[in-house]
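Minutes, project check-in
Item: structure for the 258-residue chain
Input as provided by the requester:
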Amino acid sequence: MSTVTAVLSPRLTAATTGRVLRQLRHDHRTIAMMVLLPSLLLGLLYLLWRDVPALPGQPTVFDRVGLTMLGVFPFVVMFLVTSIAMLRERTSGTLERLLTTPLSRLDLLLGYGTAFGLAAAVQAAVTVTVATTLYDLDVAGSLWLVVLIAVADALLGVALGLLASAFARSEFQAVQFMPVVVLPQFFLCGLLVPREQMAGWLQAVSDVLPLTYAVEALQEVGRSSTGTGTMWTDVGVVAGAAVLALALAAATLRRRSS
C-alpha cells in the first residue's frame, strides 16, 4: 500500500461524511442554526436599512452591506458549529475510539469538511434565495457566484473551526476562540472602513486575513455583471486558506482532551 493510500482512504472519508450527516439530521437545533440563522440576521439588517435612501448612482446601504454579509454570516456560523461538534467528539471519547481504527486524522477531517460543506451549500442557497426574494437584495453579478463565494466562506469557517477545536479543552474554550479568530477578520476585512483608508500596518494585517478576500470577492460580484479576475483570485485565496487550515488541523488534532 502506498503512503498516500495509507494516509487517505476515500472509502473511510465517505463513511465519516455519512456518519456526520446522520448526526446532523437528528440535531434539529444545529440544522436551524446553520440554515435559518444567517437569513434571520440578514433580515435584521434589512429592517434597519430598508428605508435609508441611496446616493445617486450608488447601491443602497443594504445592497452594499447585505451582499458582503452573505459571506460573513456563513463563516461565523460554521466556525462555531464545527469547533463545538469536533470538541464533543474528543471529550466524549468518540474521537479516540475512531482513531484506533484504520481511520486517519486526514480521513476524519476531510469527512467533517465534506459533510459541513454540503450543509454550507444548502445554507448558502437558502440565504441567497431569501435575500434576493424577501429582502429585495440587488446584485449586479450572477447569483451562482454569490452562492459559490458563500460556500467557500463557510468552508473556511469549517476548516478554522476544526483547527481551533484542536486547542480547546471545553466547549466554553471553543466559543472563546470565536472573538480571537473571527472579530479581527471582520474589523479589518474592509466592510467597516475601506482598506485603503487604514493605517499601513493595519492594511498589512488585513492582507493576510482570508475573510478580506471573501469580502472583496463579493464586492466584485456586486459591481460587475460577470466574474472578474480579481474575484477568481480572491476565491482561490479563500480556498487555499481553507486547505491550509485543514492541513494544520490534521497535524494538531489530539485524540482526547486532557
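Outcome recorded: The CA atoms of residues 25 and 237 lie 31 Å apart.
No further action items on this chain.
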